[in-house]
Amino acid sequence: MILSPSSSARIAVTHPDLAALLLRVTMGGLFLAHAWLKIAVFTPAGTAGYFTSLGLPGILAYLTIAAELLGGLALIAGFRTRAVSIALLPVLIGAAWFGHGSAGFFFSNEGGGWEYPAFWAVALIVQALLGGGAWSLDRRAVH
């Protein structure tokens, strides 16, 4: 158990708290990286075109970018971690099903398989079960 300074008292930080912190900051950073990829490399319009080529409405690309950007920031801050983790599940399930499903299981396959987004979806479920953990806005609201 590690003690963490708080504005009003010292609170205990456990290994699961640290695990939740590591997981949420890592996933938050990855969501920001994926949003940035869609904005700076593929462009929002290009991403919308790709979504349309998959048979999805183009507007879903813009919603996905917003979800990745806002969700990534919320995870890093530990803001409503459980709800944000669950809310981001459709992004990963959609990526696994529509974006990578036809490429098979392994992400090393041409077109990237569905193993990576499926694993990431499971990690979001784990994050929802763990909560925000140490140094999160969620935890500050409780204490």
UniProtKB/TrEMBL annotation:
Transmembrane region(s)? 21-39, 59-79, 86-107, 119-137
Q: How does it sit in the membrane?
A: Multi-pass membrane protein
Q: Which keywords describe this protein according to UniProt?
A: Cell membrane, Membrane, Transmembrane, Transmembrane helix
Query: Where, per UniProt, does this protein localize?
Result: Cell membrane
GO (cellular component) term, any one: plasma membrane
This protein's source sits in the domain of life called: Bacteria
Per the UniProt record, one Pfam family is DoxX
Q: Does the keyword Transmembrane apply?
A: yes
Instruction: Family membership, please give it.
Output: Belongs to the DoxX family.
What this protein is called in its record is: Putative membrane protein
From which organism does this entry originate?
A: Rubellimicrobium thermophilum DSM 16684
